[in-house]
Amino acid sequence: MKIKLSDSEIDEAIQLAAKRHDAKNISFRNKNPFSYSKDTALEKSLIDRTHKSHFLGILGEMAYAKYTNKEIDKTIYAVRDKGADVEDVEIKTATWMGADVELKVKKEDFETKFPKKYVLARIDENNFREVELIGEITRAKFDKVKVEKRYGMSKYGRLLPLNYIVGVKDLKPL
To answer: What are phi and psi of 162, to 5 degrees?
Structure first.
């Protein structure tokens, strides 16, 4: 299922991404895997590329909200949100365009946040106005089928967080 976002929705996402980014403590504000530059249409649309991870997440949230005719959580948190982006649903947004795309949840988040379900959205960075909603999974099913995965080292030489992941085959299509 593909959802097209309007220019006004994209503008709103850019502004909200900046607010979410700037609310974080400077000590961990720019330490994410998207802090490196890619020459994509998505990055060219951003005023500040360090807002990218928030922007991608918000696009996924907006697409799901549009699909369900609901609202995203626009609350600005200084540390982390409560684990739900649209009512009791956590939307995870990927940019990997391969068939083996995964829905991943940081182990720490899974153990401290309790949404009723997860949704996997995907964005092609050169066509970011169109968001693909791949599928959904209840938290209970996610817990039964999840596997642990770590994606290597950060550019700062630290291990990246441990994640729980499920593949597309475990998701109910939207």
So the answer is: -75, 135
Rounded Cα distance between 99 and 132, Å, is 13
Report the alpha-carbon distance of residue 118 to residue 50 in Å, rounded: 25
Q: Are 3 and 63 in contact (CB under 8 A)?
A: yes
Provide the whole-model pTM. Answer: 0.86
Question: CB neighbours of 129 closer than 8 A, spacing ≥ 6?
Answer: 4, 5, 10
Chain mean position to CA 77: 16
Phi, psi of 15 (to 5 degrees): -65, -40
* Helix 7-23 / helix 52-68 crossing angle, nearest 10 deg: 130
Pairing of strands 89-94, 117-123: parallel
Work out the burial of residue 86: count CB atoms within 10 Å of its CB; fewer than 13 is exposed, 13-18 middle, 19 or more buried: buried
Tell me the one-letter amino acid at 101: V
| pLDDT tens digits, one per residue of 9-39 | 999 999 998 888 777 656 554 555 444 556 7
